[in-house]
Inverse folding.
């Protein structure tokens, strides 16, 4: 698996930033919180492989790939919600990852949906 498969980022018509503002833009309207959520279980093969790998050390590539896919899916859902609510931007975007019992991992992408326009400076 190449490094490009581990990267984040989703091509979109909506600007998503982790900062509270976007240089060169003015926030015209705050729509409110938006989020995308996914819960993924690990299949038995990756759990066994991860258990063996953890005994010897090293990256758990199967779990890394699952987490990257989960983050991308959560981001796609966040973008869908923002778009549906009329936003063209999301500020203060964050990810939250937690265990969903013993069955999987919950990944949530969240932020504040806004309508913004280029600043007139």
């Amino acid at each position: 698996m190449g490094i490009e498969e581990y990267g984040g980022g989703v091509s979109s018509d909506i600007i998503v930033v982790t900062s509270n503002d976007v240089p060169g833009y003015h926030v015209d309207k705050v729509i409110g919180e938006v989020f995308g959520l996914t819960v993924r279980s690990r299949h038995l093969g990756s759990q066994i492989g991860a258990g063996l790998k953890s005994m010897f050390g090293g990256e758990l590539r199967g779990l890394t790939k699952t987490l990257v896919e989960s983050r991308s899916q959560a981001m796609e859902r966040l973008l869908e919600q923002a778009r549906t609510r009329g936003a063209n931007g999301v500020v203060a975007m964050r990810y939250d990852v937690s265990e969903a019992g013993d069955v999987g991992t919950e990944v949530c992408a969240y932020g504040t949906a806004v309508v913004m326009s280029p600043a007139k400076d």
The mean pLDDT is 83.
